[in-house]
Amino acid sequence: MEYVRINSIEDPLFIQVHQLLSEVFPAEEVLEYGLWKEPLEDPDIRVFAAVQDGVVVGTTEYRYYSDWNVAMTDFTIIGREGLGIGRFLAQSRLKDLQQLASGKGSGALYGMFAEIYDPYRVKGHEFGGIKPMDPFVRREVLSHLGYKRIGFPYVHPSWQGDGEAVAGLDLCFMPQDDEQTQLEAQLVADFLTRYYAVLENKPQEWLDMVTRLRTQDKLPLLPI
């Protein structure tokens, strides 16, 4: 299995990647095909595919913020059971991020953000009909990897750009120090502000959430 970076919308592998995205995630979570041109060319956005015999069997997108020494996992998709794709993607991604952190002189990566569905709170998510993508399975696997829920009520702006607030997810963080129990609220607010800067139309619920974060000091890291 190969870990192949995709940095052009013209890459034939990206058609397969976008198809996986569309099969797995709800429409409000998927950026339309043509709007991927600039993100793929952005050196700070890293889209990789797990490729076996020329076929994309999994994919992940993430980004590294050198000034904070943190990363964000945008998505991880397993397209076929029984191939060890999830571990392959997670290990390859972490190796790449550790190299980026080391190259920037930051030492070990501080940690990684991720938005994680809470199927116990919101029912009805369909994830492409493949069991490894079931939200209950994904949540438990991400817990095993070390992700923790950041203790505050979370919404995010819809990626359809319609100004709607999307609930039913938790913002989580995987600290490299397993003993870490808190995260700086200012870091969370700054991260969310930069991460969603691309969306001009943000819901008032999201704006209020970020404002509240800026009045806080530390946020608890809780089990998921």
From N to C, what is the helix and strand string?
EHHEEEHEHEEEEEHHE
Number of helical elements: 6
The N- to C-terminal Cα distance equals 31 Å
Instruction: Choose one word for the global shape.
Output: globular
Average of the residue pLDDT scores: 90
- Helicity level, as a percent range? 25-40%
Blueprint (SSEs and pairs):
Layout: E1 2-6, H1 12-24, H2 37-41, E2 45-52, E3 55-65, E4 70-78, H3 85-103, E5 111-117, H4 135-145, E6 148-150, E7 156-157, E8 165-166, E9 169-175, E10 182-184, H5 185-195, H6 204-213, E11 218-222
Parallel strand pairs: 4-5
Antiparallel strand pairs: 1-2, 2-3, 3-4, 5-9, 6-9, 6-11, 7-8, 10-11
Task: Summarize the entry for a quick read.
This protein has helices at 12-24, 37-41, 85-103, 135-145, 185-195, 204-213, and strands at residues 2-6, 45-52, 55-65, 70-78, 111-117, 148-150, 156-157, 165-166, 169-175, 182-184, 218-222. The chain has 224 residues and is α+β, with helices and mostly antiparallel strands.
Characterise the protein shown here:
The protein has 224 residues and is α+β, with helices and mostly antiparallel strands. The protein has a single domain, classed as Aminopeptidase (3-Layer(aba) Sandwich). 31% of the residues lie in helices and 28% in strands. The chain has 6 helices and 11 strands. The strands form 2 sheets. It has a 9-stranded mixed beta sheet, with helices on both faces. The protein has a two-stranded antiparallel ribbon with strand order 7-8. β4 (70-78), α3 and β5 form a beta-alpha-beta unit. The two termini are 31 Å apart.
